[in-house]
Structures are given as C-alpha cells and as structure tokens.
Amino acid sequence: MECLIGICGKDFVVMASDNLAAHSIIAIKHDAQKQFELGDKMIMAVSGDAGDMSNYAEYIQKNLKLYEMVHGYKLTPNAAANFARKVMAQSLRSRGPYMVNLLLAGVEDDGTPSLYFMDYLASMVKEKFAAHGYGSFFILSTLDRYYREDMTKDEAVELLKLCIREVQSRFIVNLNAFSAKIIDKDGITEIGNIPGSGTVHKDVPKEAIHPELIARA
C-alpha cells in the first residue's frame, strides 16, 4: 500500500515517500521514515516488509560508509546503485531474501543527477522518473503526461504535488502523510508544503491524534 516517487531533473532529483507504517489492515504509525541518506548528495527510498526495509537500508548505509573509510573516497550514485543491486541479487539466492523495492537517487560532484529504479527481484534500470507501490498506478500516467527533461526545481516540485494529490484523491487507501526531499549539488533539502505533510488523515491535524500513533514535531 506504499508509495515512492522520484523525478530526475537536469541538475537535481526530487524524492518523496509516504509516511504510513501498516500491518495487514491496521495503521501502526503515520510518521515512518522510508528515505535513508547514503551520503551528502544521495538518498535511497525503500518500501516493503518493515523488517527487511530496515535491515536492508541500514546494511547499504553502513557498507557505503565503511567503503569510504577504507578507501578514502565516496561511491558515486551509479556505483552505490550497483552495489545495492548486488546485495539484493545475493539475497535472492539465500534463505532470507529481502522483500523490498527501492528508488536510489543522487547527484555527482559535477552536478550530474541520476535516479535508479530497483525491485525485489534485483532488476535495476536508470530512469528519468519512477514510482513504486500501488500509488504508481495513478502516478506514472501523470508523470508521463507532464514530465519534461528541462524542468526547473519549482516545476518538478509542483509535478510532485500533483502526483500526491492524485493518489490522495483516487487511491482507496488513505496516504495523507508524505515526506519529500530534493537532492542537488549543494546537498539534500527537505521540501515543505507537500500535500498531507501536516496531517495524518484528511483535514485532521497532528495535534488531534493520540501521541502513541504519531510523534509530535
């Protein structure tokens, strides 16, 4: 029931993920973070089984940091994506494969952006825009219609908001809490004013929800 969105521009990448953590038909929490920073200018958004999602993301995070400490330089987004795909492929041949899907985005030192789409079968492709989860059924057609390679950051953010509103208005499951970030040559920046970023249910403020369900800002 999750939703990941990625939009690659000429010198930036916009990433967004829903904040819902659920088990079966029960919403456990509405402030789950599904985006993991792999470096100063690289993010991985992961969806899937909660345990696998945490274990896989932390394994990739720590190993990229270890590589940097041992060799003295950071992996590029392309190298990091191929490493993440290798780990996924190896897990498929074990008794405990990772049941996760992910988007990996980053910007190199020269300002070149990249966005990689990967699924739980370790298939990977570089894309200009991508989406995972049930929300992708509504999002991909919108991205295909309005995406342009020469989009500015503001235009990409507006397209992202349009995609989120489409999911919120048409998807039967309530996904009204999203987190979004933009990656460029200057680093990672949180995007404000995302539809649903201040609520956990349509028109219901965070303050009205029991504190055990959502952490207060």
Averaged pLDDT, please?
88
Distance between the termini: 25 Å
Give the helix proportion (percent range).
25-40%
H-E string = EEEEEEHHEEEEHHEEEE
Tally of alpha and pi helices: 4
Share of residues in strands: 25-35%
Please tell me about this protein's structure:
The chain has 217 residues and is of the alpha+beta class. Helix content is 31%, strand content 32%. The protein is built from four helices and 14 strands. The chain has helices spanning 50-71, 77-92, 136-146, 153-170; strands at 3-8, 13-18, 21-23, 26-29, 35-39, 42-48, 100-107, 113-118, 124-126, 129-133, 178-184, 187-190, 199-201, 204-205. It has a five-stranded antiparallel sheet with strand order 10-1-2-11-12, covered by helices on one side. Strands 5-6-7-8-9 form a five-stranded antiparallel sheet, with helices on one face. A two-stranded antiparallel sheet has the order 3-4. α3 packs antiparallel against α4 (153-170). The radius of gyration is 17 Å and the shape is globular. It starts with a strand and ends in a 12-residue tail after the last strand. Residues 198-202 have low confidence and may be disordered.
